[in-house]
């Protein structure tokens, strides 16, 4: 339906060559689980998918728990030792099940259940100094938050606003205010990671200098070098914000250093030039020469000297930062980009389905989001 709508809109001449990008949280349709609930639910999933092997697998379990119902076991939750014993017992039951089927051919449902169990054990648990398995003192990257919807993730829309579920990404035509592309990702996916997917048709459509170029608007979440490079390759006009480099107040920022990618050098405000080297990243190290520099107090307190990280797309990033200071650029951005906020508000209104996902899994949530668009 969404694709057919776009075909009709394009045939009617409603779709132009400007696009605005943004994303919005889509809250998952299930409850987020804590570690105990995750591990116990994953064990129950392996047992229910084991078919004829269920009876033999149950013989490996050591806890007094049949794992047939959901919810938490009945223990004294105020007793730290009881809580620690529960976590250790759940972990060892889970490990016993995984060891029993390791290396054996298993049906796909059992293999998927075992993978999920291994994931939740590995992400949330660690060996404690007392020999018990305990909840890890860290948060795993890409942590599964529910066995009912394993693709949902914990995400952050801003530094102070978090959510559980998915992200809905959109591109709109700001003149006709039509959504031209959608994508749905787990909630911890960065906006820049799907920008080229949202613009795939437009980036491939440039037909030469006689055609009107694509113009793309986006906030600083899209101001990555790879996105700017893709727009540059397609001869598109960038109205994407690029964040200025950060630094300690009163000290030189990265913009105060002259980077010459063609020569492979960086020159500091004091006039010293050093080569760009590829170590873990592209970087320029000024070393101990900084200690004798008359400007060192305004640059760094590191005894090893100042180090400048160099992006392969440094030229485009610098040009993007400079463009955002142009009054005409800012006026165009401020007049156009907010239209996507209004369109997203329409998308997540309750009459259209609301902000909470009505399905589980990226594929189904993505199909529903396209239907709303």
Tally of strands: 14
Give, in order, the helices and strands.
HEHHHHEEEEEHHEHEEEEEEEHHHH
Separation of termini? Answer: 9 Å
- Weakly predicted, low-confidence segments: none
Please state roughly what percent of the residues sit in beta strands, choosing from under 5%, 5-15%, 15-25%, 25-35%, 35-45% or over 45%. 15-25%
Radius of gyration over all CA atoms, rounded: 27 Å
By secondary-structure content and strand pairing, the structural class works out as: alpha+beta
Q: What is the averaged pLDDT score?
A: 91
Helix coverage percent of residues?
25-40%
How many helical stretches? 12
Main β-sheet: number of strands, strand sense, barrel status? 6 strands, mixed
Description:
The chain is an alpha+beta fold and 373 residues long. It contains twelve helices and 14 strands. The protein has helices at residues 2-11, 35-49, 54-58, 80-101, 108-124, 195-198, 200-203, 225-233, 314-323, 327-336, 338-347, 362-372; strands at residues 18-27, 125-127, 133-135, 153-158, 161-173, 178-186, 215-218, 237-240, 258-260, 265-267, 273-275, 277-278, 282-285, 307-309. The strands form four sheets. Strands 1, 4, 5, 6, 7 and 8 form a six-stranded mixed sheet that branches. A three-stranded antiparallel sheet has the order 9-10-11, with no helix packed on it. Helix 2 packs parallel to helix 4 and helix 2 packs antiparallel against helix 5 (108-124). The N and C termini lie close together (9 Å).
């Amino acid at each position: 339906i969404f694709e057919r709508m776009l075909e009709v809109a394009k045939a009617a001449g409603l779709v132009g060559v400007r696009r605005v990008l943004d994303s919005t949280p889509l809250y998952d349709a299930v409850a987020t689980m804590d570690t105990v609930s995750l591990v116990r639910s994953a064990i129950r999933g392996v047992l229910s998918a084991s078919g004829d092997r269920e009876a033999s697998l149950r013989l490996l379990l050591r806890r007094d728990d049949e794992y047939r119902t959901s919810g938490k076991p009945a223990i004294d939750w105020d007793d730290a030792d009881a809580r620690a014993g529960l976590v250790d017992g759940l972990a060892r039951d889970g490990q016993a099940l995984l060891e029993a089927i390791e290396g054996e051919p298993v049906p796909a449902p059992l293999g998927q259940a075992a993978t999920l169990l291994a994931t939740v054990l590995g992400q949330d648990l660690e060996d404690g100094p007392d020999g018990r398995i305990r909840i890890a003192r860290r948060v795993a990257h890409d942590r599964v938050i529910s066995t009912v919807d394993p693709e949902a993730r914990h995400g952050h829309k801003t530094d102070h606003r978090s959510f559980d579920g998915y992200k809905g990404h959109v591109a709109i035509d700001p003149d006709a205010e039509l959504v031209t592309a959608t994508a749905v990702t787990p909630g911890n996916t960065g906006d820049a990671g799907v920008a080229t997917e949202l613009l795939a048709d437009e980036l491939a459509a440039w037909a030469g200098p006689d055609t009107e170029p694509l113009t793309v608007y986006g906030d600083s979440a899209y101001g990555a070098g790879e996105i700017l490079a893709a727009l540059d390759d397609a001869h598109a006009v960038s109205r994407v914000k690029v964040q200025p480099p950060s630094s300690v107040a009163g000290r030189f920022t990265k913009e105060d250093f002259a980077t010459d990618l063609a020569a492979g050098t960086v020159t500091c405000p004091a006039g010293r030039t050093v080569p760009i080297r590829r170590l873990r990243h592209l970087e320029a190290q000024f070393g101990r020469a900084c200690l004798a520099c008359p400007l060192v107090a305004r640059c760094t307190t590191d005894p090893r000297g100042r180090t400048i990280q160099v992006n392969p797309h440094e030229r485009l990033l610098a040009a993007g930062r400079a463009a955002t200071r142009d009054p005409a650029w800012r006026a165009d951005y401020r007049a156009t980009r907010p239209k996507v906020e209004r369109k997203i508000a329409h998308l997540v209104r309750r009459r259209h389905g609301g902000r909470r996902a009505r399905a589980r899994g990226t594929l189904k949530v993505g199909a529903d989001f396209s239907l709303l668009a």
